[in-house]
């Protein structure tokens, strides 16, 4: 595919920037406390669909602007249960945006909940966060450093296939064994496997460069469901 220019894709509620192999997606509705609306959902889905197919991108960081009073203050709608009057609470929409990620970083002062709030270090949220930082200003630099470490020191194809084996596995052990064995066979012969072994032998940092697009048409091996909205003729 042609390499996309993320500045020219018509996003109105987010910004997408590349920092090496890391894509930074920034929610850009600061004045509205990043409340979740239709155009924001559309922009996020569009961005991630393109990022997922961009071989330059290894890791994605989702964040808000430094001066934003909230990462996401919930859904903008008529139902007061889904609207946040306080900038801090971790309301349903923010939970949805965050819980699907492999690593979540937050500051220890952030409040979670709708009515009775708790902080990130509460036992009620044990295991949710990868890291809890002392200050709000520490969160993004730490997340970016972690993203760059993952991008530089892991194989993108190995990570993608491993995640897919977990999320796109089969309901029975026989089929799961077949796809798992196929994955091992393909990855064991990949350029990144060769580079990893060579780097270990030479006592140096690896330089992984394999592309996920190389695994087509084997991956995806699952049946993808088209969830895009279709215009009705009625």
From TrEMBL:
Pfam family, one: ECH_1
Superkingdom of source: Eukaryota
PANTHER family the UniProt entry points to: EG:BACN32G11.4 PROTEIN (PTHR43459:SF1), ENOYL-COA HYDRATASE (PTHR43459)
Descriptive protein name: 3-hydroxyisobutyryl-CoA hydrolase
Source organism per UniProt: Pycnoporus cinnabarinus (Cinnabar-red polypore)
């Amino acid at each position: 595919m042609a390499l996309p220019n993320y500045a020219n894709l018509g996003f109105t509620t987010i910004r997408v920037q590349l920092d090496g192999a890391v894509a930074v997606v920034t929610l850009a509705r600061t004045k509205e406390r990043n409340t979740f609306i239709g155009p924001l959902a559309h922009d996020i889905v569009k961005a991630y669909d393109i990022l997922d197919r961009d071989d330059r991108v290894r890791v994605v960081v989702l964040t808000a602007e430094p001066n934003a009073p909230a990462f996401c203050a919930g859904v903008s709608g008529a139902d007061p249960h889904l609207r946040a009057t306080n900038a801090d609470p971790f309301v349903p929409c923010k939970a949805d945006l965050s819980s699907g990620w492999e690593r979540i970083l937050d500051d220890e002062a952030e409040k979670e909940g709708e009515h009775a709030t708790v902080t990130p270090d509460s036992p009620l949220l044990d295991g949710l966060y990868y890291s809890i930082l002392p200050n709000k200003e520490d969160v993004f630099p730490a997340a970016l450093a972690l993203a760059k470490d993952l991008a530089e020191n892991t194989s993108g194809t190995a990570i993608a296939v491993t995640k897919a084996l977990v999320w796109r596995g089969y309901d029975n052990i026989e089929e799961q064994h077949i796809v798992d064995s196929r994955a091992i066979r393909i990855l064991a012969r990949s350029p990144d496997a060769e580079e990893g072994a060579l780097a270990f032998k030479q006592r140096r940092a690896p330089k992984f460069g394999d592309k996920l697009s190389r695994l087509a048409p084997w991956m995806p091996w699952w049946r993808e469901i088209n969830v895009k909205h279709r215009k009705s003729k009625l």
